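Subject: for your reference before the review

Hello V.,

The reviewers asked for a structural picture of the protein, and I figured it would be easier to keep everything in one thread rather than splitting it across files. Below is the amino acid sequence we used in the manuscript, unchanged from the supplementary table.
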Amino acid sequence: MEHKPIYPEIKPENVVIPKGATLESWLNSRIARHETRSLDWDALKFQADYDPKYRRAQMRYVGTGGTGVDSDDNAVPAEHFTFSTMVLPAGCEGPLHLHTDAEEVFFVLRGNKLRFIIEHQGERFETVLKERDLFSVPPGVYRGLVNEGIEEALMCVIIGNSKPVTPTYPPDHPVAKIKRPKGGGAG
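And here is what came back from the structure prediction:
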């Protein structure tokens, strides 16, 4: 099977450095250093306010991810995907939710008992991930996770869309009835 790129090929002679920028300033604007990031416990606070078991934090590196945060001036602008880290305290969970427009990839950096739950048209799939495991969840299926371990978990989360649609929840899930605050920019 022949591989056809989704995006057009960009050859060196076609690279466009933004107007008024040098190669150095342009590339420096595409670096996100850990010491300039902070955990955002407010991105999904509306869920944790409903039930503390939904407490988790996002640290944005590329784009704003799928949390509903409109903008973050401290993140590298997303062109084709978003990249963030998520902290999930022991005993906490990310509720079942649906991304209709993007694959979502989870890579476990720290944690040894993360249960991922997938629901699709009446079927349920579960798997437990530990440190350095990865799970690529396709669009169009509900996904959720629970940290069943005794320590805080840390994951990389990549969403395959530069500005993913804000996820939705199963209609019968309690989180579906919570009013999500609009915007919530971080920058």
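For the response letter, the relevant points are probably these. The chain has a mean pLDDT of 92. The longest strand covers residues 82-88.

Happy to draft the paragraph if you're swamped.

O.
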